[in-house]
Amino acid sequence: MRSTLAYWLLLLLTGGCAWLVAARAFAVTAEDLKPRQGEEVATFAGGCFWCTEADFEKVPGVIRAISGFSGGKEVNPTYEENSAGKTGHQEAVQVFFDPKKVSYADLVEYFWRHIDPTDAGGQFVDRGRQYRSVIFCHGDEQCRIAEASKKRLAASGVFGAKPIVTEIRPYESFYPAEDYHQDYAAKNPVRYRYYRWGSGRDQFLKKTWGDSPAAAAAKSDPATPTPAGPSPVPPPRTFAKPGPAELKKRLTPMQFEVTQREGTEPPYKNAYWDNKADGIYVDIVSGEPLFSSKDKYDSGTGWPSFTRPLEPGNIVEREDRHLFSQRTEIRSRYADSHLGHVFPDGPPPTGMRYCMNSAALRFVPKADLEKEGYGQYAKLFQ
What is the domain partition of the chain in residue ranges? Predict the structure, then answer.
C-alpha cells in the first residue's frame, strides 16, 4: 500500500507497516484455513486486504475472514515481496461463511459494492497488479454465479460505458499474510480509519452507490426465507438501493415518477402493454425477476397485465387507500419500487390481474436471458 506521494504521507502519519503493533494476537493456523462443518469458502481480491477483510466481517453469516495472497505461483510469499510485485499474487481475503445465513451470490453482490470493478490498474490509492480485483471461484458453480453476476452488473449501467474488468478465475491457492495484518481494522482502528479515508475508497463507493453500500448487508435479515419458485437471480439481500439523486440520473422522468412517487403511466402509451415477445420482466431499478411473458395476457386496460408473478418472494403487497377506494398495491421486494396493483378479476388459473406499469419494468427477451445472467429461466421457453 505504497504508490503515491500522498499515500507515503498517509503511511507516515499513521505509522506505516513497519511500525505496526498488534493490539491482540491472532495467529492463523492450518485449521483456520479449512472449512469446518457447515462452512463454505469464498476468495476475493479487492485491493487492500485490510479493507476487504473488514468489509466482509460485517456481513451476517460470515464466520471469519483471513487476509492473505492468492493468484500467483510463489509459495508462502511475504507482504514485502508481494507489495513489490514480485510474487504474481493479489492481496486477497479468504471468507468462510454459513450458506444457511448468507449465500455465495450474496457475497459476490456485496463484493461489487465495495470495490471499483472498472479499475484494471489496482484499487483506489493502491496501484499495481497485486492490488487488482479478482474473484477466485471454488468450483464450477461459484464460477457460474460470479460470471452471471458480473454480466448483470455490466448490464445495469451503474458504471456507464466503462467495462467491468474484475477477473474471475478458478481458485488455486491461498497463503495467509503475516499475523499483524489479520484483523487489522479491529487492532488498529485509528490507523485504519486514516488509511481508509485517505485511500478514497469510501468516497467512491458513496458516489456510486449512495449513502451506505455496506449497510444493506450489515442490516439484512439472514432469516429471510428464500422466495418460492425458481431460485431467484439477484438482487440478493445485499442489494443497496441508490439514493433519490442517483436514481434521477439513472431513470427517465416517468420511471422515477412511477417507481419512487407511486405514479401511474398513461394506458396504451407505454412500452409493454402490447408486448407479445417471450421473456421475463425485471425491476427497472434492481433487476430482480418479477413476471414472465408466459403469464401475461391482454386485460383490455392498456397496461401490461399478468395472472401471477414469476417470483412470488420478490413481490410485496400493501394496502392502498388512495383515490377514495381500497386497493392492493404491488411493490418489488428489494428495490421497493412501486409496480402497480393487483385485482381479483383476472382469468384462470389464478383469477388475479397484476396490473403493472411498464415504466417500473425492464423486459429481458428469452434470447438474452443467459447473457444477462437470468439463464435459469430459459427453460420456461423451451
Answer: 5-218, 244-381
In the block, residue with C-alpha cell 476468495 = 43
Report the C-alpha dihedral over residues 177, 95, 158, 161, rounded to 10 degrees.
Answer: 50
Query: Of these residues, 17, 48, 137, 143, which one is catalytic?
Result: 48
8 Å CB contact between 75 and 69: no
3-state secondary structure of 40: strand
- For residue 51, indicate whether it is catalytic: no
Rg (CA), the chain: 23
Average per-residue pLDDT for the chain? 84
| Helix intervals (H) in 166-227 | 184-187, 189-199, 201-209, 215-218
- Contact between residue 343 and residue 289 where contact means Cβ atoms under 8 Å apart: no
Find how far residue 189's CA is from the centre of its chain: 26
The question of whether 355 is a catalytic residue gets the answer: yes
Domain 244-381 matching CATH 3.90.320.10: the answer reads no
Architecture (CATH level 2) of domain 5-218: 2-Layer Sandwich (3.30)
Entry field: residues in the chain: 382
Select which of 17, 51, 143, 355 is catalytic: 355
Residue 304: pLDDT band (50, 70, 90) is very high
Report the range out of 17-21, 111-115, 370-374 with the highest average pLDDT.
Answer: 111-115
Q: What angle do CA 14, 16, 18 make, to 5 degrees?
A: 140
pLDDT of residue 238: 55
Task: Report which of 190, 145, 166 is spatially closest to residue 42, judged by C-alpha positions.
Answer: 145
In contact, 234 and 287? CB cutoff 8 Å: yes
Give one DSSP letter per residue of 272-333, joined into a string: STT---SEEEEETTT--EEEEGGGEE--SSSS-EESS-S-GGGEEEEEE-GGGS-EEEEEET
Lowest mean pLDDT among 19-33, 81-95, 167-181: 19-33
pTM to 2 decimal places: 0.56
In the chain, % of residues over pLDDT 70: 84
- pLDDT for 79-92, tens place per residue? 989 988 889 999 99
